[in-house]
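User: Could you go from structure to sequence for me? I need the amino acid at each position, not a summary. Structure tokens:
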């Protein structure tokens, strides 16, 4: 009798284990579908907020500059040289600002600012950023969430919801990491010579 009860218990455990093992791929599929949906939402936000305009180098076509998708969101190309800024061009009686042909570098009264590398590269992009650092940076307009303020033309996004910022972070973590060491911003004295 004891042996029959023991066998029933073993059978129940085996059946339960088989059900749990069979369910694992389903959980993975649901998680993957949820992640894919979050990536799609983040991609749509990044696209609609025009992040490519300032953070993706351009290729020139007969119809004008287009984002170079092979360098998606990798920021100002580290190997690009900016032309010199002519004395007197920026100021109250001149231009408020100038930008390079790729729209990834800008010169203005603040100096020179460069579009950052938003790819998940750990050395030159935001790959080492936690989601908390990303959210804080986007909400406060401060690089890495606590350092120098973002420079023009970068706005802050204090009105984005937690869900929207999460989706953007998940999307940016999903794109190809590209090694591109964007230079540090220059103060005005170094920008105009």
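Assistant: Here is the amino acid at each position, in order:
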């Amino acid at each position: 009798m004891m042996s029959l009860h023991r066998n029933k218990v073993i059978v129940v455990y085996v059946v339960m284990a088989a059900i749990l093992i069979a369910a694992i791929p389903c959980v993975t599929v649901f998680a993957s579908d949820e992640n894919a949906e979050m990536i799609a939402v983040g991609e749509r936000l990044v696209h609609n907020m025009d992040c490519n305009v300032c953070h993706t180098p351009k290729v020139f076509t007969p119809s004008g500059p287009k984002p170079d998708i092979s360098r998606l969101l990798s920021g100002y190309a580290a190997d690009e040289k900016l032309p010199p800024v002519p004395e007197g061009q920026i100021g109250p009686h001149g231009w408020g600002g100038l930008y390079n042909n790729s729209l990834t570098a800008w010169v203005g009264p603040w100096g020179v600012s460069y579009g950052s590398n938003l790819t998940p590269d750990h050395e030159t992009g935001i790959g080492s950023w936690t989601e908390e650092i990303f959210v804080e940076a986007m909400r406060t307009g401060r690089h890495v969430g606590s350092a120098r303020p973002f420079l023009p033309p970068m706005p802050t996004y204090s009105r984005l919801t937690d869900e929207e910022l999460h989706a953007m972070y998940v999307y940016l973590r999903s794109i190809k990491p590209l090694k591109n060491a964007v230079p540090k911003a220059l103060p005005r004295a170094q920008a105009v010579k």
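One structural detail worth keeping in mind: Residues 11-31 have pLDDT under 50 and may be disordered.
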